[in-house]
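Quick one: co-fold with adenosine-5'-triphosphate.
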Amino acid sequence: MRTSERAHRGVELVPLAVTVLSRAEVPLPLGIVDKVGAELDTRLDHRVLDLRKPAVRAVFELRHAVLAGFRHAFTKRGFLEVETPKLLRQGAEGGATLFPVEYFDQRAFLAQSPQLYKQMLIGAGLERVFEIAPAFRAEPSDTVRHITEFTSLDAEMAYIHGAEDLRATLEAIVQETVASVRKDLSEIQNPLSELLPDLSRPFPRIPFETCEEWVGRPGTEVDFGTEEEKTIGVRAEAEFGSPFYFLIDYPTSVKLRTFYAGRSDADPRKTGYFDLGFRGLEIASGGPREHRLAKLTENMVAGGFDPKNFAGYLEAFRFGMPPHGGWGLGIDRIVQMLAGLANIREARLFPRDRYRLDP
Ligand code: ATP
Ligand code: MG
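Sure, here it is.
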């Protein structure tokens, strides 16, 4: 080692000998130290080389810190981490985005979400559960926020007194997780720590109806499209100074196919459903569920589902089910936003989409 003015840290290593452990083929399909960025497709085609870049590795250090932060925040609050089946006979969210699988001489589906199992575990008396696991959706649309295999962070809580109990818990967990990510990343001098937002303010709760006015189509009761979501994100940050916000009181008509969503008894046109947005992107959706068997079965039939196909799920409601609710949060989306990535694919090591099954 000798001192050097040109070297980054003022010292230079002088090798006494060099042993080649493994030879690299040349030319490389992808530059590792290039200043010019390669196209995302080229990078993903050669992901192993791409991951060698410090800026790309930094994203996965952030992802690790996000997962560790969430696990800690849930555990501290008495949530039990669970794992539920990913090979299912039935989907919960309707047929359009189900992946069928040949399952010996039957047909099965890849799980779109652990929804029904989370609720069954509430029936089992576990009271507070969370799961971090893959979810599969045959998303035909080619967008920067959809992939076909994503990591879903799902939680379910019993004995709630309404949607606000869920939101307050989710808000505290997100605030705590982002703070712990900042701490973890600063300790390893990961430059992404500087991008992390300050979440000391409460997340505003914005009614669905207000958002409809913001996007210029009051009272239409249609879910928001990508551009509308962005408009809502900009407006929320300008008015409330918070990059995260809850979009609350989804009308039943917008969540019609979601049979497990609780409707308000006073006004069945309303649900307690909410989304958590982060700078114009939906990060999580959740709400209180219907815990009464008769009402749940009624919602199922109204949504076009046959209760016979859900016998195992419905059994969990037959022997006492407390009021409960929960949410699903996309890990890849929150990592994408925290790391300031243009495309969700960059938030996964080996992303899968309609066209990509390799590497
Ligand atoms: P979107 O309207 O953006 O397609 P969604 O409302 O269909 O999402 P939910 O069923 O509410 O999604 O799933 C809960 C969360 O899971 C979403 O808020 C999102 O963070 C994440 N998620 C859902 N689908 C995908 C996907 N295809 N790719 C990545 N993340 C997803
Ligand atoms: Mg949603």
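If it helps, Residues 41-347 form a domain with the BirA Bifunctional Protein; domain 2 fold (CATH 3.30.930.10).
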